[in-house]
Amino acid sequence: MDEIVKELVEVCAVDELGPGQSRIVDINNRSIGVFNVSGNFFALANLCPHAGGPLCRGQVTGTSVADKPYAVSWQRTGEILRCPWHSWEFDIATGKTLTDPTRSVRTFKTVVKDGHLYIETGASR
Amino acid sequence: MVSDRRHAAHTPPSHVPVTVVDVDVHPAPRVFSELRDHLPPAWRDRRFPDGVFDAIESPLYVAPNKAQRYDAVSPAGGPPCSDPAFTEKQLFKDAAVDYAIMIPLTVRPVPNPEHEAAMCSATNHWQSETWLSKYNSHDRYRGTIRVCSGDPDLAVREIEHWAGHPQFVQIMLNPYMRAPLGQPQYHKIYEAAARHGLPICLHVNRSPGMGLLTPVGYASYFIEHHALYPVMYATHLVSMLTEGVFDRFPDLRVVFVEGGFSWLVPLMWRLEKLCKEFGGEAVSMRRAPRDYLKEQIRFSTQPVEEPTRLRDIRHILEWMDASSTVMFSTDYPHWDFDDPKWALRLLPSEMKSRVLADNALDLYRLPRLRKNLGLSAAHNIDAANRNEAAVA
Amino acid sequence: MTIDACVHPLCAHKDDLRRYMGEPWRSRSFPGPERYFYPVPTGEYVSEEGEAAGNTVAADPAKLSREIFGQEGVDKAILVPLTRGVLPDLDQSMAICRATNDWLADQWLGRSEGGRFVGTIRVDPREPEQAVAEIKRWASHPDIVQIAVPLQAQRPYGNRDYLPVWQAAAEHGLPVLIQSDGGSSIDYWPSPVGYYKLFLEYATLYPINFSYHLVSLIAEGVFDRLKNFKVIFGDGGADLLAPLIWRVDKDWRPTRSETPWNSQMPSHYVREHVRFLSSRFEGPQDDHDWKTWLAVSEMSELTLFASKFPMWQYDAPSSAFKSLGDKERHAILETNASEFYGLA
After folding, report:
1. Where is average pLDDT lowest: B3-12, B88-97, B307-316, C136-145?
2. Minimal Cβ distance to C221: which of A69, A86, A100
3. Partner-chain contact A69 C225, CB within 8 Å
4. Do residues B257 and B203 touch, judged by C-beta distance below 8 A?
5. What are the C-alpha distances in Å from B157 to residues B147, B150, B179, B189?
6. pLDDT, tens digit (0-9, with 9 covering 90-100), for B174-225
């Protein structure tokens, strides 16, 4: 059986990606978007599970929420990623759609070490 | 990069086989003066607002991100699909489209038909001088003649003006009408279209006001209006069938663009069942409704309906003989853009090339081998990936 | 058991209803129940050779019982009396509804000659105060199973002005039948693009207008707010439902933030809250396509059989849905209705 080797691939220095910022990196032929949401780092595949759009090029924003009709409030500013194609809303932290039934984009673990940001990837050997 | 080095000394073929025809692309002017300057002088001098030209800002029932793909804004600025170089990159390179049929949404209906006709004329002149010539050195764009749908005499006048132009391949009618499109007052439009061998396409271009009224009043939200475009299209189609439009004009072709296609299947079933008892009323319709489909009626794919079980769309496609009746579209640069690689992955493989290219090549009489001319910017397609053996 | 989810009892004489009205309504003119536009070329009501005309039978409780329960073998029939659609004078409209309800209860309900008639309360939802009062008046009547409102409207039925009416219906566990009614009233165009000409167009297209109400009810959060509110579309349309709801589902995730009170896919609300009366004009022509069509459209879960006697659409119960397998036929002819209405 193949062994999964976890690899840390560097994205950038931590202070190069401030809160509200994002960038897209190419790791092992996979395009990955890296986001800083209020000081926490998240990484998502740059491929929307809906129709293949470049998800991480979408708008980082908040969204409207209502627990009953017409009572709308704006929440979660900076936490939501809207696909640039069909505007599906994803929770950056979890990679899940805001809508049910849940659809997800693949997420990757981020690691901060010695002032640098890494993405943890697995590759079989 | 390795692929570039390998192909550097390779002469690109003069022609490449067409694999994707996109029958729904929406160019926009960079600035409104591009259109205003083409208005007839009387209209140019009136200080009417330019909002009617606005291909982007729909006033009501606005789609997400003002109906535009968020990533379709060119680095050079301007609204989506206004920069020819960036459009070429996103359409021809990224989406691998060979030909694109342009349908400019630059005329929102107004109550004065003369005004609307003037805007149509400006749009057609603008197309002729930009997307169909200056921006078309690669000869991959074709255009759509905009006409004032509500005034058939003015529409015919505009058709006659442009009919000989080789890059205009169809005429657009706006479905937001006050009477279903099969009725006799429109027949002179179909006569002219059929005589010139120009298909008619239907595509929405929205104004506020009564065009938005449904049989049960006005909707509140975008989803109500957008999801139910098919009810408009179904009404026009049934009217055309029952008024014998396809019988009177056997050379007429009608394309329903951007309204989906799945609705056709149950609609035809119910129409045919009702025809058994009530078909006598439709004195001008000489054949069964389904008999007109293969020859004279077409549908664009986008936005492809998404059944709960996505694969169910295959049954719809088979029932409606999609191998003959359906043509691929992206709707670039709109928000609900369909990429050819993804949108048709559920299609039975024997249908794919018919839907992706052949049906549109037939309808619009486009060359199956397209000239492999350079693009306006340095975004050359890697033609070595194409099947060069096909070139004579 | 066969449940016929829609039979139309008729007044024998034009002015029968006036006996159930007080003044000034009793003396005031109003149109009959028949449609002015798009008359039926073969006649509004069924009539068979050598038999009494359908409308005569439908005006006589004994004759109608024999027809529905005796001849056709129906066990339970839901009576849906006709009113006058969207009349200009709201108070007159409600007066007609009240009189209709009194007439129905007096002459039709509670009879059981070989089968059981249950019934429908008519209200005009544009007048919420009077409509709610009328719902409350009849809600505990043992033979009332639903409320009915016209398909015709001046705002789609998700609009917030109607909420008190839907709330009252939901509170009393009564589904709302939305069905084409009247036809000599202040309706808008029958299509989104104007008046069509032929009855053939009307018959093909008019029932599809259910979709405007359906998407409105979903988008305005009526089903989120009223968890046990149920709706049934009485002109059919279950055949066009599938392609249209697929579009609505597709549009929902992108536009969630415009109607953020929706917690589920639009099609989910349909399965939970909405049903359609059947029509013999819907579905594939070829028998061998039915199995696939049922799987694709969910029609056998969402459809309730309705004969619509004595109207031109009449679908004889004894011969309906013969192309279907036993299980699907049984669902459409009995269990879908018995579950939806809670009929024993």
Report:
1. B3-12
2. A69
3. yes
4. yes
5. 9, 13, 21, 9
6. 999 999 999 999 999 999 999 999 999 999 999 999 999 999 999 999 999 9
B380 pLDDT above the threshold of 90: no
Task: Count how many pairs of residues, chain A against chain B, have C-beta atoms within 8 Å.
Answer: 36
Exposure of C154 by Cβ count < 10 A (0-12 exposed, 13-18 middle, 19+ buried)? middle
**Is the CB of residue B243 less than 8 Å from the CB of residue B254?**
no
CB contact under 8 A, C255 and B269: no
Domains and CATH numbers, chain A: 4-124 (2.102.10.10)
Smallest CA-to-CA distance from B100 within B110, B87, B118 is with B87
Nearest to B124 by CA among B108, B92, B140, B102: B102
Cβ-based neighbour number of residue B232 at 10 Å: 23
Is-contact C337 C74, C-beta < 8 A?
no
Number of C-beta neighbours around residue B269 at 10 A: 22
**How does DSSP classify residue C87?**
-
d(CA B242, CA B244): 5
> d(Cα B213, Cα B215) in Å, to the nearest integer?
7
CA B372 to chain centre: 24
Rounded Cα distance, C167 and C164, in Å: 5
User: Can the peptide bond before residue C310 be classed as cis, meaning omega within 30 degrees of 0?
Assistant: yes
CB pairs under 8 A between A and C: 47
Residue B388 pLDDT: 30
Contact A86 C254 (CB under 8 A): yes
**Bridge partners, A41 (sequence order):** A36
- Asked whether the beta carbons of B343 and B336 are under 8 A apart, the reply is no
ipTM of the complex: 0.97
Both tokens assigned to A7: 């690899």
Any C CB within 8 A of B216 CB: yes
Answer yes or no: CATH 3.20.20.140 is held by domain B15-367: yes
- All residues of chain B having their beta carbon less than 8 Å from the beta carbon of residue A57 are 70-71
CA distances for C263 relative to B16, C172, C267, angstroms: 49, 25, 12
Neighbours of B375 (CB within 10 A): 17
Residue B141 forms beta bridges with which residues?
A: B100
The ranges assigned to domains in chain B are: 15-367
Domains of chain C, earliest start first: 3-341 (3.20.20.140)
B178: tokens are: 């006050």
Q: What is the pTM of this model?
A: 0.95
The one-letter amino acid at A111? V
Task: List the end-to-end C-alpha distance of chain B, in Å, as a whole number.
Answer: 30
- Residue tagged 């994707």 (tokens): B20
- In terms of Cβ atoms closer than 10 Å to its own Cβ (0-12, 13-18, 19+), residue B3 is exposed
Residue A52 has its nearest CB partner, among B71, B336, B342, at B342
Residue with tokens 């060359």: B367
Q: How far is B343 from B335, CA to CA, in rounded Å? A: 14
